């Protein structure tokens, strides 16, 4: 289901809670909502559609990947960049890391550990900030 984008800074500033298997439908809603906003969005966090759960979706080239309870376990090579967000107006400066290592569960609740770099790593870090109540 395509959901409206939340722009309430108080709501977005709250930390998300751990996702459970019962939250898999939120991942499908994120996929539908990202697809509907494809022209201006490459990733989303569940709180952007009104759900305070640790779920993100990230476009990784030809596919979108939903990640449940993602945790960055390693990061290196910081750099300064500017980012925009569907939930915010304009762009803002922030610091990201060129390389990250991430642990997360997929929709079958299978655990993964994966390294990401460049643009994909930047998208993941942006969405992870949302889960932690950090507004760029």
- Helicity range of the residues? 10-25%
CATH domain fold name: Peptide Deformylase
The main β sheet shows up as: 5 strands, antiparallel
Report mean pLDDT, rounded to a whole number.
96
- Rounded to an integer in angstroms, the radius of gyration calculated over CA atoms is 14 Å
Count of separate structural domains: 1
Span of the ends, CA to CA: 27 Å
Unreliable stretches (pLDDT < 50, length at least 5) are none
Assembly form of the protein: single chain
Question: In words, what does this structure look like?
Answer:
The protein is α+β, with helices and mostly antiparallel strands. The chain has one domain: Peptide Deformylase, CATH 3.90.45. It contains three helices and five strands, in the order ααβββββα. The chain has helices spanning 9-12, 24-36, 118-131; strands at residues 43-45, 55-59, 64-84, 91-105, 111-117. A five-stranded antiparallel beta sheet has the order 1-2-3-4-5. β4 (91-105) and β5 form a beta hairpin. The longest helix is centred in the C-terminal third of the chain and has 14 residues, at 118-131.
